[in-house]
Design brief:
heterodimer, A: alpha/beta, FAD/NAD(P)-binding domain, 3 domains, five-stranded parallel β-sheet, 14 helices, disordered C terminus, B: mainly beta, Ubiquitin-like (UB roll), five-stranded mixed β-sheet, two-stranded antiparallel ribbon, 9% helix
C-alpha cells in the first residue's frame, strides 16, 4: 500500500507534535507515525488515560494536542518506521502489514532512550531503567508498597523518584553518580531556566524522606531469580539496601537509527543540523533529542522551526530559531553535569553480560578490537535489540564506534517483507 | 483508566485496569517474560519498546513486545 503526504514526521512526542502542528496549520498535508499506541512520546506517555492537568507538563500536552486535532494531520500510532526503500519514501510496519509513505519533507523526532551500563545483577527481573520504570508505571504498573532504589545519573532521576512516590512507591534512596560540585554548577546555570529549577525542587519535595546522595552508584544487585538487595558505593565504602525494584538509567542517548539509515551526518553523538533543523540529507530535518538531549522546551521549539521550514514559512522558522540559543546551551550543560565517572567502567565483572540479547560477557568483549569484530566473533549487538542497549554501553566501556544501520532498522516478521506465496511450500510443510 | 478487564497469563486469570500494558500486567502477575539464551529469566528493562526483554507470546504470536501492547479482555499471554 502506498500513500503520500507533503510532510511525514517520525515520532509523536512533543517535538513531533509541534512540528506536525506548525506544518499542518500552514496548509501542508501531514502524517505523524509513531510505534507507541498513543501519541505523547515518553514525557507525555499515558496522558490519554489520565487527567493530564494533574501531571507535570500536562497543560502543555493539552494545548498542543488540541491544536493538532484541529488540523488535518493524520496520526498513525503503532506504526514502526523500518526502512527508506527509495528517495522520498518511508517504509512502516504494524502487525505484519507494510506501508510505503511518500513524502516531500521528512522530520525525524525519534527522541532518546536511556543509556544502560552493565553491573553484576543488572539482568535480574526487577532491574529496570529509571525512565523505564516510570514508563511502566504510566502504562498501568502498580508501584504501591514497592521499595524502589532509584540510581544512575541525570536530571530525570529526581522527576522519576517524585513520580513513583506520588504513585505510592516507597523510595528507599536516590543515588546520583555525578559529584555534588558539578550539580551545584549546573543548578547555578539554571538561573536562566527558573521553571526547570522549580520543577526539580518540586520533585525533591515529594521524596524528601528518601536520601539523595551524589557521587554514589550501584555496585551490584543480588537476588535469586529476581531483585532482593542492592549494594551501593561511593568509592570509599559500600552499603546494602533490601528492595523490590531497581530503577537505574545513565542519562539519555538519542535514537539515531533512522537518521543513520537515511545518511544524516552525526557529530559527537548527535545529528548535525543547520539553523532551520535541516540535516546533511536534503529534505530531512532532525529535531529534539536527536540534536542534543535538552528536553521538552527545546524539542517543541525545534519542532516548530522544522515544521515551518517544511511548509515554506521561512520567516517564522528563522524567527523561532533565534530563541534556540539558551536551549542548546542547556543541552550542553546537561551533558557536562551528568558525564559518566571513570569508576563506572569497572562495574562489569568478567562474567557480567554486556549484550543481554545474546548473553555476551564482558570477558568475551574485552578481547575484541572494536564493535565490528565483537559482532562477528561474539554476536554482541546482533540480537533482537540490534545493539540499541549494548551499543551505548560498549561506546562507554571500550570507546567503540557503533552505527552502520542497515534496513530493516527495526525487527519485522519475515512474512512482512517477503511476497505472499499462495501455494504451500513443499519444503517447509 | 476506568474499568477492569481480565486477561490470561500462563493459564491464570489476572485482572488489570483497562489501558494497562501487557508488560505491566506480566510484572504485576509476578512473572518474568522470556528466558535468555543462557537460561536466565528476563523481565522488562526499558519500558519503551527498545530493549526487547519484554518479549512474550500473545494470542499465539511469538516475540511480541509486551510493553507496547495494551491488554484486551480475554487476551492470552504465555511467557517462557
Amino acid at each position: 500500500m502506498k500513500v503520500a503526504f507533503d510532510v511525514v514526521i517520525v515520532g509523536a512526542g512533543p517535538g513531533g507534535i509541534a512540528a506536525a502542528t506548525a506544518a499542518a496549520e500552514a496548509g501542508k498535508r501531514v502524517c505523524i507515525v509513531d510505534d507507541n499506541r498513543a501519541p505523547g512520546g515518553q514525557i507525555w506517555r499515558g496522558f490519554d488515560q489520565v487527567d493530564p492537568k494533574k501531571y507535570p507538563h500536562g497543560d502543555v500536552y493539552l494545548r498542543w494536542t488540541s491544536r493538532l486535532r484541529k488540523t488535518s494531520c493524520e496520526v498513525w500510532t503503532g506504526w514502526q518506521a523500518t526502512d527508506h526503500p527509495a528517495a522520498g519514501c518511508l517504509r512502516v510496519e504494524r502487525d505484519g502489514e507494510i506501508r510505503d509513505i511518500r513524502f516531500l519533507s521528512l522530520i525525524l523526532a525519534t527522541g532518546a532512550r536511556e543509556r544502560f551500563l552493565p553491573f553484576p545483577g543488572w539482568t535480574l527481573p526487577g532491574v529496570t531503567g529509571a525512565g523505564g520504570l516510570q514508563a511502566l508505571v504510566k502504562s498501568g504498573l502498580d508501584p504501591r508498597g514497592k521499595r524502589v532504589v532509584v540510581a544512575g545519573t541525570g536530571p530525570l532521576l529526581l522527576a522519576i523518584a517524585g513520580g513513583l512516590a506520588s504513585a505510592g512507591a516507597e523510595i528507599v534512596a536516590i543515588y546520583e553518580q555525578a559529584p555534588l560540585a558539578r550539580l551545584i554548577l549546573f543548578g547555578a546555570g539554571l538561573a536562566r531556566h527558573a521553571e526547570k529549577l522549580a520543577e526539580g525542587l518540586s520533585y525533591r519535595r515529594k521524596t524528601r524522606r528518601a536520601p539523595y546522595r551524589t557521587s554514589t552508584w550501584i555496585k551490584r544487585v543480588e537476588g535469586s531469580g529476581r531483585v532482593e538487595r542492592v549494594v551501593v558505593t561511593n568509592g570509599r565504602k559500600e552499603w546494602t539496601h533490601i528492595c523490590d525494584w531497581i530503577a537505574c538509567g545513565f542519562h539519555l542517548v538519542p535514537n539515531l537509527e533512522l537518521p543513520r539509515l537515511l545518511g544524516c551526518r552525526v557529530v559527537d553523538g548527535y545529528v548535525e543540523v543547520d539553523s532551520l533543523q535541516q540535516s546533511s540529507v536534503k529534505g530531512v530535518a532532525c529535531i529534539g533529542e536527536l540534536t542534543g538531549i535538552g528536553g521538552i522546551d527545546k524539542a517543541i521549539l525545534e519542532g516548530q522551526i522544522a515544521g515551518w521550514a517544511a511548509a515554506d514559512r521561512g520567516a517564522e522558522a528563522t524567527g523561532a530559531a533565534r530563541a534556540l540559543g539558551p536551549h542548546k546551551r542547556f543541552a550542553r550543560e546537561l551533558d557536562r553535569a551528568f558525564a559518566l565517572r571513570e569508576e563506572l567502567r569497572g562495574l562489569a565483572q568478567p562474567e557480567t553480560f554486556v549484550c543481554r540479547c545474546e548473553d555476551v560477557t564482558y570477558a568475551e568483549l574485552a578481547g575484541c578490537g572494536g564493535w565490528r569484530e565483537a559482532k562477528l566473533h561474539t554476536r554482541c549487538g546482533m540480537g533482537a535489540c540490534q545493539g540499541r542497549i549494548c551499543g551505548a554501553a560498549t561506546e562507554f566501556l571500550f570507546g567503540w564506534q557503533t552505527g552502520g544501520v542497515r534496513p530493516p532498522a527495526f525487527p519485522v516478521a519475515v512474512s512482512a517483507v517477503t511476497p505472499k506465496v499462495d501455494a504451500p511450500n513443499p519444503i517447509c510443510k | 483508566m476506568s474499568g477492569r478487564i481480565q486477561i490470561i497469563i500462563n493459564g491464570r486469570p489476572v485482572e488489570v485496569a483497562a489501558g494497562t500494558s501487557v508488560a505491566a500486567a506480566v510484572m504485576m502477575a509476578g512473572e518474568a517474560c522470556r528466558i535468555s539464551v543462557h537460561g536466565e529469566p528476563r523481565a522488562p528493562l526499558c519500558g519503551m519498546g527498545i530493549c526487547m526483554e519484554c518479549r512474550a507470546k500473545v494470542n499465539g504470536v511469538q516475540h511480541q513486545r509486551t510493553c507496547q501492547m495494551v491488554c484486551a479482555a480475554g487476551m492470552k499471554v504465555v511467557t517462557e
